[in-house]
Design a protein that fits this description.
three-stranded mixed β-sheet; Alcohol_dehydrogenase_Fe; 14 helices; Rossmann fold; 9 strands; ADH_Fe_CS; 2 domains; Dehydroquinate synthase-like, alpha domain; binds fe (ii) ion; 390 residues
């Protein structure tokens, strides 16, 4: 019986408080003439871009800054604007960008991945929607992360909104994986409370969906369970006090481990629906996950082996050998965590309109995350889940 599991990650992952100090050594290993920084104006005003500029200047590496990412949920038009900037570098300065450095959260990393991919493969990012459509390596990419998190700094996915179709496209290919990820909690202390909450519950969603995925392996299981333990313990602390560096560091590790898990095990129906809701209403990704997660877990529970339900329950806190009790504890604990970090309790509060539920549900089942959900459903099941969370 074949039972293979590939495990993909960036070549190097700098992690922990002060990890950024190793970036100059890493940069020296590239023979760099010019770098494109992909970021947004908020990252510039927080001083994070300035700290990377200083590193580049000290190494005599020239750079340009593309800061045209205007809101969370990256769009095709942001990618096109970035590509225009990239080509300006090709034509005017006659010097190709040898490296892209993204600074920010998942939005900026995903946008950078798309720019890096189209930069070498040509065409438009829409041409690469789906799994393994990219045929050439992207421009090398270093992702410096400021949230915990989407884990986009270390995954092979880019989620880009095509506004013309109101669809969040998933582009997935090993070629999108950044060369180096940097997760230094020093870059996370200024994360606003609402971003701490939504990105933190995204971590929980990644870990739970990876743990129950049809592609889970013993390696992704151990990463997912540890991420769940850390997030349930430290997310409320990071939310209450953004300067709690211990809580920020634990959430950084939870983000990294959950990202490693889902990059290799895949996700499920929570992300299918959250992606499409984001395409329609442009609210924060993690908030959709927070609301959907308990309903999807209940829907999936008949397809999750009993021992795995007990392991998941134990990672959250209580130990029980009663299946029904364990499912109830998991569902109640997710609701409780969501409430503690003040995320709205239903999709209606996040703008869901009844008339959109059917097209949203149709799109959700086409999302690549659908294939690894432990229980396969039909459009009516997705409609039921969205209505349950409304
Ligand atoms: Fe996510």
């Amino acid at each position: 019986m074949e039972n293979t599991h590939n495990f993909l990650l960036p070549k190097t992952n700098l992690m922990g408080t002060g990890a950024i100090k190793d970036l100059p050594n890493q940069l020296l290993s590239f023979k760099l003439s010019k770098v494109l920084i992909v970021t947004d104006k908020n990252m510039i005003s927080l001083g994070y871009v300035d700290s990377i500029e200083r590193i580049l200047k000290n190494l005599f590496i020239s750079y340009d800054i593309f800061d045209g990412i205007l809101h969370p949920n990256p769009t095709v038009s942001f990618v096109e604007d970035g590509l225009t900037y990239l080509k300006k570098g090709f034509n005017v300065f006659k010097r190709n960008y040898k490296l892209i450095i993204s600074i920010g959260g998942g939005t900026n990393h995903d946008c950078a991945k798309a720019i890096a991919t189209v930069g070498t493969n040509g065409g438009s990012i829409n041409d690469y929607e789906g799994f393994n459509k990219v045929t050439k390596p992207a421009i090398p990419h270093i992702a410096i992360n400021t949230t915990a998190g989407s884990a986009a700094e270390l995954t092979m996915f880019a989620i880009i909104t095509d506004q013309s179709r109101k669809v969040k496209m998933a582009v997935a290919s090993p070629f999108l994986t950044p060369y180096i990820s940097v997760n230094d909690p020093i870059f996370m202390t200024t994360m606003p409370k609402e971003v701490t909450a939504s990105s933190g519950i995204d971590v929980v969603s990644h870990a739970i969906e990876a743990f129950v995925s049809t592609e889970a392996s013993p390696i992704t299981d151990s990463l997912a369970l540890k991420a769940i333990r850390l997030a349930f313990e430290y997310l409320p602390r990071a939310y209450e006090n953004g300067n709690d560096l211990e809580a920020r560091e634990k959430m950084m590790f939870a983000n990294t481990m959950a990202g490693m898990a889902f990059n290799n095990a895949g996700l499920g129906y929570v992300h299918c629906m959250a992606h499409q809701l984001g395409g329609f209403y442009n609210q924060t990704h993690g908030c959709y996950n927070a609301v959907l997660l308990p309903y999807v877990f209940e829907f999936n529970s008949p397809s999750i082996p009993e021992e795995r339900i007990f392991q998941l329950c134990e990672a959250i806190g209580p130990i029980t050998r009663n299946r029904i009790q364990a499912i109830d504890i998991i569902i109640d604990s997710i609701h409780e965590l969501r409430s503690k970090i003040e995320i709205p309790g239903n999709l209606t509060e996040m703008g869901l309109k009844a008339g959109d539920i059917e097209p949203l549900s149709q799109n959700a089942l086409k999302d690549i995350s659908a294939f690894t959900n432990p229980r396969q459903g039909f459009v009516d099941d997705i409609i039921y889940l969205i209505k349950s969370a409304s």
